[in-house]
Specification:
Blueprint (H helix, E strand, L loop, with lengths): L49 H19 L11 H12 L4 H14 L3 H5 L3 H8 L6 H16 L8 H5 L6 H12 L8 H12 L10 H9 L5 H17 L18 H4 L19 H13 L5 E2 H5 L5 H13 L4 E3 L3 E3 L4
Helix pairs in contact: 1-11, 2-3, 2-8, 5-6, 9-11, 13-15
The structure holds a DNA duplex (11 and 11 nucleotides).
Length: 343
DNA sequence: GAAGCGTGGGT
DNA sequence: TACCCAAGCTT
């Protein structure tokens, strides 16, 4: 890290900061031509340069990460790009604690993309277990096939190539490129978005969907150095996961509490529209889950009767089963039999 | 841009 | 007990 030390005599402003170290909450991040400028640390403006402001955030968070990062299997060197990619699929909307055992089994069984690609897709769905959103298993299988066919069996390094794989969107492409290959990307997941919303923007929660303003801010905050940028991505995400949590945030343990715009503003509560809650009981989603659980736990074909037993409302049950078939999660056979997909 | 897509643990 | 929430993606 070549950035300026956090506190240099550039503080011509804010003379007597009685309690906290010179607070500069509102990061004056460039609004145009985002971070293309090189680190012009030498700029002589009276207020700290954006790079200096950003470094004031980076340094404490990177240091905190050194001592507080969890020892997760996909962070170990032996995980490789495939391990990172598998973990990212599994972690899409599923907590770490539930991913851990399935991840270990998955990597032991399919240590390379080609190993998974050689399997029937239904085996991926079965091994997915109860992680939820089983379409992810199908997409991971499809991604493994594409990697095997188009990329010689190696997880591609380029963001655009990753993005072209099934199940990989903006976040996952950036995460794999950054975590697996040490590249410089804005990695905007829900944790990072929350950290930036609070520390920089001064609000309790980010918008429901990722906005252009958030992307611009994240890019502006990206350290210039590639390796530092990759560590910043991991550490800011970890901060959101462990300290700057959605509920019961722990500001007392936060390395940037002194600079958090939201904390400095007195932690004003969120005023925008509430997140739309995800109902579940009685929905097609629940029925799909019950149907697929039967298929997962049965090797070979399942009878219509066995599926009928999981839900008594026939119209909804049929609709859910049709949906699973349409999604490729279930394969219908002749004679009212069903199984996990072989192809 | 909103809706749909699983599951289980915490409060 | 009912919510709320967890490293999103696709249509």
């Amino acid at each position: 890290m070549t950035a300026t030390p956090a506190h240099t005599p550039d503080a011509v402003h804010t003379p007597a900061a009685a309690h906290l170290p010179d607070t500069a909450p509102a990061l004056d991040i460039p609004s145009a031509t985002d971070s293309m400028s090189t680190t012009d640390i030498t700029s002589t403006s009276l207020s700290p340069s954006p790079a200096t402001e950003a470094a004031a955030l980076h340094t404490p968070v990177l240091a905190w990460f050194e001592t507080h990062a969890r020892d997760l299997p996909w962070r170990r060197p032996e995980a490789g790009a495939w391990g990172v990619m598998v973990s990212e699929f599994m972690l899409q909307q599923t907590p770490v604690s539930r991913v851990l055992p399935v991840y270990e089994q998955w990597l032991a069984r399919w240590p390379r993309p080609a190993d998974l690609a050689a399997e029937a897709p239904g085996e991926a769905v079965r091994a997915w277990g109860r992680l939820g959103y089983p379409r992810r298993a199908l997409r991971l299988h499809g991604a493994a096939q594409a990697i095997t066919e188009r990329h010689g069996g190696d997880v591609p390094r380029r963001h655009a190539q990753l993005l072209a794989l099934p199940g990989i969107g903006e976040y996952t492409a950036a995460a794999v490129a950054s975590f697996a290959y040490g590249q410089r990307h804005a990695v905007l997941d829900t944790n990072v978005r929350r950290v930036l919303a609070r520390a920089v923007t001064g609000v309790q929660y980010p918008p429901n969907a990722t906005t252009a303003a958030e992307r611009k801010l994240a890019r502006a905050l990206l350290p210039a150095d590639e390796d530092t940028a990759a560590r910043w991505a991991a550490s800011s995400m970890e901060l959101g996961a462990l300290v700057c949590t959605a509920k019961n945030e722990s500001c007392a343990r936060c390395p940037i509490a002194a600079r958090c715009a939201w904390l400095l503003a007195g932690k004003p509560p969120h005023d925008g529209p509430a997140r739309r809650g995800q109902t579940y009981a009685g929905t097609d989603r629940q029925v799909r889950g019950k149907l697929l659980a039967v298929l997962r736990d049965t090797h070979g074909a399942v009878t219509q009767r066995a599926l009928d037993a999981v839900w008594d409302e026939p119209v909804q049950r049929a609709r859910a089963l049709d949906g699973l078939v349409a999604d490729g999660l279930v394969e219908p056979l002749d004679g009212g039999l069903y199984r996990l997909p072989r192809s």
